[in-house]
Design goal:
The complex is a heterodimer of chains A (115) and B (118). By secondary structure, chain A is mostly beta strands. Chain A contains 1 helix and 11 strands; from the N terminus they run βββββββββαββ. In chain A, the strands form 2 sheets. In chain A, strands 2, 4, 5, 6, 9, 10 and 11 form a 7-stranded mixed β-sheet that branches. Classes of the chains: A mainly beta (115), B mainly beta (118).
Amino acid sequence: DGGITQSPKYLFRKEGQNVTLSCEQNLNHDAMYWYRQDPGQGLRLIYYSQIVNDFQKGDIAEGYSVSREKKESFPLTVTSAQKNPTAFYLCASSTPPQGRRNGYTFGSGTRLTVV
Amino acid sequence: AQSVTQLDSHVSVSEGTPVLLRCNYSSSYSPSLFWYVQHPNKGLQLLLKYTSAATLVKGINGFEAEFKKSETSFHLTKPSAHMSDAAEYFCVVSDRGPSGGGADGLTFGKGTHLIIQP
């Protein structure tokens, strides 16, 4: 079945470390997105990519980096510059412009905790 | 520009009673509207969508929503709540105008936490 796979499901990071969250999709979608979710704040867009080797900052990109070397993959790196990285991270995908009518497909998320 | 407001951060109902989750939107173009559900530590699952066809939209698990242009609302309802409905619900808008929130420009509400009392 087609879908989005996020790994790992739970991740622990020490202060000062960089960590990378994986997101892979086999839906043949062109666009991919990373969101951060905190209690009571809904979803906030970190980065998105519409095409391979291209990506744009979202609303809260500081302290994060991404790459899009393959259509299927859109990994997110949480760097040591991110002051408060503990959160639930969601990856999504769509095929523009159909996504505006069909919505996004979401992965099951990664919960990152700083220890 | 587009925006969406979920009027209640928390809603509590008894099992077997009706559910109403309220959503108002703002859009410069003809909108598409969605409701997603999120169970704890899970991703978001599409419940239903409105894309300019019938104004009363039926979704999964007995949920439905009605698009009311005059009231700029898209409230989610269910006649009888079940314990398994306890989750976070997100109202989402896309006005199909120039992209604002990403490649497909979807804007998410802050969510309503639905609590089901036994």
